[in-house]
Specification:
446 residues, Methylamine Dehydrogenase, Chain H, mainly beta, 3 helices, four-stranded antiparallel beta sheet
Amino acid sequence: MQTVFPTGTTIYKPEKCFNGYTLYPSKKHGVGAVLVDMNGNVVRSWPQFDGYMINMLPEGRILGGQIGRVTQEYDHHIGCDDVVQEDWDGNVEWKFEKADELDIDGKRAWSARQNHDLVREGCPVGYYVPGMAPKLNDCNTLMLSYRSGTWPDISRDYLPRSTRMLEVTWDGEISWDWMPADHFEEFGHSEAAKNAIMRHCRNQHAVFQNTISYVGPNKWFDAGDERFDPENIITDDRGTILYIISKKTGEIVWKIGPDYASSPALKALSCIIGPHHAHIIPKGLPGEGNILVFDNGGAAGFGSPNPGAPDGTWNALRDSSRVLEIDPITLDLVWEYSAHTAGFPSEGEDVKFYSRYESAAQRLPNGNTLITESRCGRVIEVTRDCEIVWEYVCPYNLMDDDAQFLSDVFRAYRYPYDWVPQVDAPVERAVVPPANGEFRIEPVQD
């Protein structure tokens, strides 16, 4: 890959974009949440929100995880210490910390152990949906947390971060609590997969989630399909599974995977590997009712050993990513963004769109999709024809110097200008990059 390249906004076609502010959490310690305009100018940053997921609420409020009370830097096995809502001026309006009591250096401390994702009641997803604003008070918050322990029917190993789904009231009470480790048999793993998990699941990815949202109002439930009750929860397993949980019964009522040879539709879809941000496109947005997911690729899943997975773990392999829009009833592929659909014709070039971990996709009101290619620190807005109409490269290098530029953006969301009334809407100026063959860096002059 190239070692010298521009950062900030590198492509911008205002007339084709859903224009607004983009919020993302930088993984560089001390930078925190960053809000940029369409030209890449920093409007505001929140260094204190130094965790994974960051959501914006109306009137410039922010909701996310904070560290520093229990751990001084983000610990992937602990998560964030607190989930906090702040107004624009930094006043704390809500905080949650009591999910799990930990022993840290011989001292007991409560922690939210929040990680990866959270959603505020009022909107089924963390991003902007016209007519469905998240509530600002007296409401519930849906989030991912962790619990450590042993589950001898799953793995012989101690699992330090088995994921846990929580719904928390405004008063800080846990009103709903669900763990995949308690529902392992419902996933439908083969005997070969169970054997691999039991013997080798030290990384706890057999019971690990990275996404959570409400199903939300949808046409399937309106037509009588109870699996898509708006109160139900949709998530994805870090392996190869997307699924919906009944909020009332706790049962898994809909899923894709882990066996992609079980039907012609799943064979045509092909294995979803290491997915992130699976959710139902909310009502009122183009594609409403379909599943949108970032299919990371890389390695995931469990089963019989193969040359790429000698012990049967991470036995599904693909070195490229896809963003998929799927009809949840027929499992037909409705839309796809990949290196191939973006215009790279050769299979060997699939790797040109690839983020093995993290990443996300947001459906915008104009029908475009905002895609976070996390491991490249890159966010793009693409049309239904897979044209890139906005591209932003995070400028924050995770390394201490520029010897090797490494950036990482967990998930970016686009919000309308009027969600931040404290600042004037910016002037939008197109960004037209030079032809690659003409892009030069001038030599140092004597």
